[in-house]
Input
Amino acid sequence: MVIYLLRRLGLALITCVFISIFTFVIIRLPPGDFVDAYIANLAASGSSVSAEQAEAMRREYGLDRPVVVQYGIWMGRVLKGDFGVSMVWRRPVTEVIGDRLWLTMAVSVSALFLTWMIALPIGIYSAMRQYSIGDYIFTTLGFIGLAIPNFLLALILMYLGFRYLGLNVGGLFSAEYAQAPWSLARVWDLTKHLPLPAAVLAMAGTAQLIRIMRANLLDELRKPYVVTARAKGLTEMRAVLKYPVRAALNPFASSLAYLFPYLVSGSIIVSLVLGLPTVGPLLLQALVAQDMFLAGAIVLLLGVMTVIGTLISDMLLMWIDPRIRLEGR
Amino acid sequence: MADRTSLAVRDLAVEFRSEQGVVRALDGVSFDLHAGRTLGVVGESGCGKSVTARSILRIVDRPGRITAGRMILDPGTPREVDLAQLDPESKEMRGVRGGRVGLIFQEPMTALSVHYTVGNQIMEAVLQHADISKAEAQNRAIELLREVGIPRPETRISAYPFELSGGLRQRVGIAMALAGDPEIVIADEPTTALDVTTQAQILSLLRRLQEEKNIALMLITHDMGVIAEMADEVAVMYLGRVVEFAPVEEVFSEPRHPYTRALLRAVPSILATPRQRLSTIGGAVPHPGARPSGCPFHPRCSEQLGALCTEQSPRPVPPGRSGAACFKVDQSEAVTA
Output
């Protein structure tokens, strides 16, 4: 078990290193270097930089050194929490991203939570009552959910919420809390705003997971150990929940790993439509404006978060399946 | 022998309804199980052996359902109950499952869940049928593992099924079937998936447990060797019917039904000359949905009597008496009578 964990952890670290190299390449992709871009930016706004100043900046940032050393310097800064300066915002990248990272996490995790809460019971029901009216209804709803683009659903829900419920939709905060410092009231305000974006983002994933759960469970329900459980005298519910559902959870947990990055990257359009202060729209802006330090930082953070998500799903798998836990025993 | 009758099955019929039509999996099956005795149920695949076992426990998969017949558990006692009349989900029926009737499975690997320890799965069965604490249930589980001959049961109880060999797993399966202290045990091909040495061990274990606990054993198999070794009486099944019933010696010394004779001819013999071809039964078991008219065995029967066999159905074997459902047998009996 420890070996398994260590191996996963090692793999995760290696993946993170590769992500950082990839990010570094992205940052260096535009022609010229950061100082050229900085000078061009300043020139565009009317001021100018002397050649000596430029050289001094290059030395300061280590841009005159070999690429590998530059990567080392950059990584050193990143590890200290310094992601460089955003050229568009003229502020440190960390400041620009700020709360957005945590808000993105909040939205994604609640969407994931919602996905599980809805998909699990419906998937179980659909498998246990295959071809029943309920199964058909959920299947139909599921396919509709899969087919509707979620930004469209976001628009519809915003309209309905505004028109009929008079809700202040869009964003994650009410106007008075948008710039306020963190407080209990602000957290409560966030909690009230979370359900709508979470529901919109959860929809497609939920539909998908219902299908996965239903198919998995249908496979497992045919296995002899289910008959064993019934032959013991367990109630049908208990027999199904304890044995085949547990087995069907296996692929369910591994789907967590891909669902998480999907939620973050797939949320860009929805975030724009709903005006969410998450990193998705920021990444889009940064890419459009060729703001490479900002884009690089976001890519790096998302990459690392995905790796962490995968690690969590590996640990879940370990908990669910003793065959993985006891590997090499 | 005046052994107590534990289970009397009468005229049991089970149907599977689907869009393709109605399939009669069981068509008037009758037999008795007696305490301390073994009924061997033999026949080719698809003849209804396993459906019979599952019908008794009322766990026939949908869309199968019992359409006729009775299954009287403990007839003539205060605990008498007709299993065919119970709601499969009822508390009483769940008490029968594992509590009064235990089931042993064919595939010891897939019949145990890989997600829980052996101890967990046995304790669950114990707790289901006894009002005792978890600690007591654990002791009972260890006791059961010892009874079925598993060495070091105190440590094996925390093993997962995939950590055990096939033979040990089947012993766990037997321990689980015995957890509720049942008076009837149904073993559905308990040795088919095991190698020959392990088979012999499992069979002798079953016999020892049966003697100790005076269990009524229903042993389902397609192996005539297992029947010869284990059974007191034999029910030969074909296409959802009992076509012959007799004490085990009679089945081997003077088989009545042509199907029984064909089955016996198909047993490999140690006395056969090298390269001698094994006798087989021509054709295959017809699909139960396409049941032949008349005697269901007539298309494959080497001794059929023409129109009589193709048009009329022979009388079923009356329970408790030796006999065969065959016109030829009826005729010869009429001559001797």
Summary: Chain A has two domains: 1-97+285-329, 100-276. The two ends of chain A are 8 Å apart (CA to CA). The beta strands of chain A are 85-86, 91-92.
